Amino acid sequence: MSDLLSLFPSGSRLDGDGTVVVGGCRADDLAAEFGTPVLVVAEQALRARAREYRDELAARRPGSRVVFASKAFPCTAVQRVMVEEGLGLDVAGGGEILTALKAGVDPGLIVLHGNAKSDEEIALAVEHGIGLVVVDNADDVDRLEATGRPQDVLVRIIPGVTADTHAHVLTGHAGSKFGLAPADAAALIRRIEHSPRLRMRGLHVHVGSQILDVEPFAESVAPIARLGEFEIYDLGGGLGARYTWADKPPSVASYLDALIGAAKQHLPASAQLIIEPGRSMVCTAATTIYRVTTVKRGAITFVAVDGGMGDNLEVALFEQRFEAGIVGRFDGPGLESVTVVGRHCESGDVLVDGVPLSEPAVGDLLAIPATGAYCYTMANNYNGNRRIPVVLANEGVPRLVVRRETWDDLMARDVD
Ligand SMILES: *Cc1c(COP(=O)(O)O)cnc(C)c1O
């Protein structure tokens, strides 16, 4: 077995008794204090990644901006860390605007996306002075004009680029529901340029997510360059993260070498560039700690835990591969290959299909690393599940930033 610890947030270590320590906090102490399952974010790992993005971009293109794609981990505490590290926030829905504002972001540094923005979301954005609204369709323009207020906008272009990732997270291919084909965009751009209220600031492009090579990013630049010269180019997010041994994502530096290199080749030298990393910003900064509920030995050994697709939909939606370890016994003894499953009423509720665990038994704690991206985001109440808490662990001090849902929370919405 390879070194499971290397998939945990940077700075994680094993204590003398083999217990994993994340953000300076022992996994067993976190489980005792906050219960299980619990999603633990290593604050220093998160900050280090934000700074890496910020500094690597500044080194290649001064005056450009990193905005964190909030949807990868849309809670105030995570957004606030990004704001404190000097980043803006990209949002894709009303609730993300509210947590972003609560996190203290300058509204001028918010970028709003969405292929089906509601009147309510447009109103919220315009009222709060959100910096850039990314127009995805002509109806967005109608809605923005109807507010009667001025607004800076970008137009989202389909670059016609594919990438080697799961089809469900491809967004830049011809036929994507996001954005406009260049020919269709041209007319809308002219309309915005003649709008009395809207200001046409630039273009946006986003190829997809969990992309593990740099070429698709570079390829996405030339198609937007043909639409004319603008002040701002938002080149999206999508860099892949390391979930498992096999993943070898490009470094932020090599990703930016390719992307900024293409921008230097095709886009005006004076243009401001924006990037919007989500997954690669947060994925490996967090880990989920579960408790083993049942071990069923047969043709397959199933290790069932007290969570599952209620707190991690990445497996069911994108067949994402994770790794796992029994807390205190990552390296054995008695490693056996098992399937880690959740507690939900779906055969697809598998967390890890085939992973070596050391003598799994009821009551053990099980840790799954690299759960920082989109797990909190897509948490749900399937089977009456109470959504799990988020704890920021910082130099040995854990801080509850999202509490566990209660039965009362669940019943409060059930108003019959
Ligand atoms: C989801 C999304 C991102 C972030 O993508 P990641 O793969 O999480 O980096 C950036 N921009 C837009 C428009 C998105 O929809």
TrEMBL record:
Question: Which keywords does UniProt give here?
Answer: Amino-acid biosynthesis, Decarboxylase, Lyase, Lysine biosynthesis, Pyridoxal phosphate
Q: Which GO terms describe its molecular function?
A: diaminopimelate decarboxylase activity; pyridoxal phosphate binding
What are the positions of the active site? Answer: 345
Q: Which residues form the Orn/DAP/Arg decarboxylase 2 N-terminal domain?
A: 46-282
> Gene name?
lysA
Query: EC?
Result: 4.1.1.20
Q: What is the designated name of this protein?
A: Diaminopimelate decarboxylase
Q: Which GO terms describe its biological process?
A: lysine biosynthetic process via diaminopimelate
Residues that bind pyridoxal 5'-phosphate: 238, 276-279, 374
What quaternary arrangement does the UniProt entry report? Homodimer.
